[in-house]
Structure formats: C-alpha cells, structure tokens
Specification:
The two termini are 36 Å apart. A hairpin with a 6-residue loop joins strand 5 and strand 6. The N terminus is likely disordered. The protein is mainly beta and 283 residues long. Helix content is 7%, strand content 44%.
Length: 283
C-alpha cells in the first residue's frame, strides 16, 4: 500500500510539473529559426507580459507587464541583456519614434485621460494626441496609425488632422496591425461583421485601393501582433499561441517557427531581421 501511494505521489508531481513549465511568463527572444531562445526579463509583481517592441538601434525592448485576470499593469523598457529595467508608466502598448527619442502609447486609466499619448523616452513631454488605442508610428515619423472601437485611423503628427485608413468597420477592434518597413502598407488581423473567422488584410497606408481581400483566414486563436520582416517579404503573427511566418507574395500557407519551447505570442521582428522578441503568457 505504501509503495502504491508513493507511486501515486510521484505521478501527481510529474503531472503538476507540466503546467508549471507552461506557466512561465516574461519577454523572450529567439532566432527566427526558433533556436537560441532566452528570457530577457520578467517583472515579478505581474502575472503576464506582452507587446514587446524593439528600439530601432536594436539595443532595447519596450513591453507591457500586467495582471492576466484584470489587465491592469505598467509599461517598461529594458536592455536586451535584461539590465536597466525602467518603468515608463501605465500599461499602454508603447511604440518608439523612428529616432528612439519618444514613445507613443495609449492609456485607459492610470490618472491620464483615455486616448493616444506621446512622451519623451527620457521622461517628460507628455501630450495627448487623440482618442483611440494601439498607436503605431510610421517609419518616417510623420504619421501615427491607431484604432478606435471599430476601424483603423491615421493621425498626421504635424497638422493634427486625422481620418480613416479603411472605410469599413469591423466586428472586433483591429488591435493587431503594423506598418511595413517601407511605410507603404499596413497589415492587420480582425473579424468583419458576419465573417466566420478572423482574417489577415494588407492595405495601402495612403488610403487608396480599399477593396478588402483577405490574405489569410483562420478559425480559432488567430491574432497576436503582426510584424513585418526587414524587406517586407514576410509577416509573423500568432496562431493557437505559437508564432508563424507567412510569405507575403503568393498564396502559400503560414509556417510554424520550429524550436519554440512553449506557447508564444506577440512576435516582433528585430531591426536586423535575425531575431524575434515575443511574450510568453500563462495558459
């Protein structure tokens, strides 16, 4: 009887050990082939991490850390080696300006009026630009794309004028979107009204040719952040909590990145094209 109980306890311990590995959270990097994965940082007071963004010099990562059960959290910056972790402010999906001197971000609380804000990376210079969320700075710094409740919009930084990128409204907020590196296109994932599944679209950033033809449609957990490779030939995103890569040209299927040790989300291609930054969250 004692041996049976001992075996049962060993078996239970092994079963419990599997979820423990899956519960690991933080911001990670890996080679684009899935090799050399390593954790960059974990903020211990928060249970989940997300939205990593490389600085344009490739030396730092901005990211969010938050509580998975209520979404409340803060934004941080850290060096690629995990040093000099710096709190920036309320959780807001930070994005770097092209010269790495400013952040654009959104807030939904934390003492600031909800909407899209800008501030200096070194501190100070906070200014609210408009309503909306998930802002993304254009590669030339002249415009900021963001989303409101149902569609994508564009803000001219100099004039303050704004307007829609696409005319269509969507059933879900298109929070997963990104500029191409040449600034000509925007890729995003959302669900249209009456659509059976989420779809990937690529549209002209200048608002022309707005016939929405999905490049890819997938059921289930399809989303996470969209990121372009340098050269704009590939896109990476998340399917069922793993990172996949898609060739933009042609009609091929996305390919799962090999070597991923556990579920991964929010991929972000490094400026040199050699690495992904990504988040790992509790299941």
């Amino acid at each position: 009887m004692m041996r049976t109980r001992a075996v049962m306890w060993v078996g239970l311990a092994l079963l419990l050990a599997v979820p423990l590995r899956a519960q690991e959270t933080g911001i990670f990097v890996m080679r684009v082939d899935g090799s050399q994965e390593r954790k960059v940082v974990q903020v211990d007071e928060f249970s989940a991490h997300g939205s990593p963004r490389w600085s344009h010099d490739g030396k730092r990562l901005a990211f969010d850390a938050y509580d998975a059960w209520n979404g409340r959290g803060k934004s941080f910056v850290v060096n690629l080696d995990g040093s000099e972790l710096t709190e920036i402010g309320p959780r807001g999906s930070l994005d770097w300006s092209p010269d790495d001197k400013q952040f654009v971000f959104h807030v939904e609380g934390g003492g600031l009026e909800p909407g899209v804000w800008v501030q200096n990376v070194a501190g100070g210079g906070q200014e609210r630009l408009t309503g909306g969320a998930w802002p993304r700075w254009s590669p030339d710094g002249g415009k900021i794309a963001f989303c409101d409740d149902t569609t994508l919009r564009m803000l001219d930084v100099a004039s303050g004028e704004e307007g829609p990128i696409v005319d269509e409204s969507f059933e879900q907020r298109p929070g997963s979107f990104e500029w191409s590196r040449d600034g000509r296109s925007i890729a995003f994932i959302t669900r249209r009204a009456q659509a059976a599944m989420r779809e990937l679209f690529i549209v002209n950033a200048d608002g022309t040719n707005q016939v929405l033809t999905p490049r890819l449609a997938r059921p289930g957990n399809f989303g996470g952040h969209v990121t372009w490779s340098p050269g704009d030939k590939q896109l990476a995103f998340t399917i069922d909590s793993y990172i996949y890569v898609l060739d933009v040209a042609g009609n091929g299927d996305p390919r799962r990145v090999g070597g991923q040790l556990d579920k991964s989300r929010d991929p972000e291609w490094s400026p040199d094209g050699a690495w992904f930054a990504f988040a790992r969250r509790p299941r």
